[in-house]
Amino acid sequence: MSAHSETGIEGTYAPQPGAAPLPRMVRAQAWLETRTQLRNGEQLLLTVIIPTLLLVLFSAVDIVDTGAGSRVDFLAPGILALAILSTAFTGQAIATGFERRYGVLKRLGASPLPRWGLMTAKTCAVVVIEALQVLLLTVVALALGWSPHGNPATVLLLLLLGTAAFSGLGLLMAGTLKAEATLAGANLVFILLLVGGGVIVPLEKFPHAAQSVLQLLPISALSDGLRDVLRHGAGVPWDDLGVLAVWAVVGLGAAARFFKWE
User: Fold this and answer.
1) Omega before residue 77 within 30° of 0, cis
2) Mean of the per-residue pLDDT values of the chain
3) pTM for this one?
4) Where does the chain cross the membrane (predicted)?
5) What is d(CA 195, CA 193) in angstroms, rounded to the nearest whole number?
């Protein structure tokens, strides 16, 4: 036996037990979440393939009257909003709901990574996927003749607020409903907002009474705000930002209050 072990001097044994630094744990979990989503065929269909096909199809074929001007100039901002919805809300709600059902969240909640750190990692993964979506859709839209305008900083602010709003609603659904109900509900909401959220069909095509209600939806605020900036070169769309901010506060607050880990 060495003199160090006999005297009990600290540092004799390596590696020392204990949790890794918190930033490293969050990065590792975020990378795991990102890889899991990218390897999921159903998630890729929802978050990447469907928005891209809708952009190409409705830009190339005159199916819906998008008003004066180029169809792609109208559609591209709405499809970007749809991509945020598909990842931050639909995809995250379904994945988190089944993780909760199978006890994955419960086990992760008992790990050295705190629960808020887990949610931070999930949010980072969502942002990474969204960045890839926006890049792909932008390239496709430019190839189709899109001519974007406006301040990129305003566009980024709209996308971030939209992400916060949809993430809060997705986590609220995943943390309060059964996995099967979350699966059905998230897909139903996706379809309804695709049709009635101003993504492909202009809100002006709906009855006037319905427009006042539809304009308060987060997808409508995001798509209209992006369209005002990217299509018309408008300044900061404060009304749309206000709607998104309210949904973000309500959704994230309710998710923090009512989310059940098991």
Assistant:
1) no
2) 85
3) 0.86
4) 44-64, 76-98, 119-147, 153-174, 181-203, 241-259
5) 5
Interatomic CA distance for residues 128 and 261, integer angstroms:
24
C-alpha distances in Å from residue 26, one per residue of 23, 56, 174, 195: 5, 37, 21, 37
Angle at 132 between CA 151 and CA 54, to 5 degrees: 85
Give me the phi and psi of 167, to 5 degrees please: -65, -45
Q: Say which residue the tokens 């492909």 belong to.
A: 200
| pLDDT tens digits along 90-144 | 989 998 888 888 887 778 766 777 777 777 888 888 899 999 999 999 999 999 9
How far, in Å, are 92, 103, 158, 177 from residue 227 at the CA level? 25, 41, 11, 34
pLDDT tens digits for range 191-201: 999 888 888 88
Looking at this protein, which amino acid is placed at residue 183? L
Q: How far is CA 25 from the centre of its chain?
A: 22
Q: Which residues contact 132 (CB under 8 A, 6 or more apart)?
A: 48
Cis peptide before 237, with omega less than 30 degrees from 0? no
- State how far the Cα of 218 lies from the Cα of 161, in Å rounded to an integer: 10
pLDDT band at residue 47 under the 50/70/90 scheme = confident
Contact 167, 126 (CB under 8 A): yes
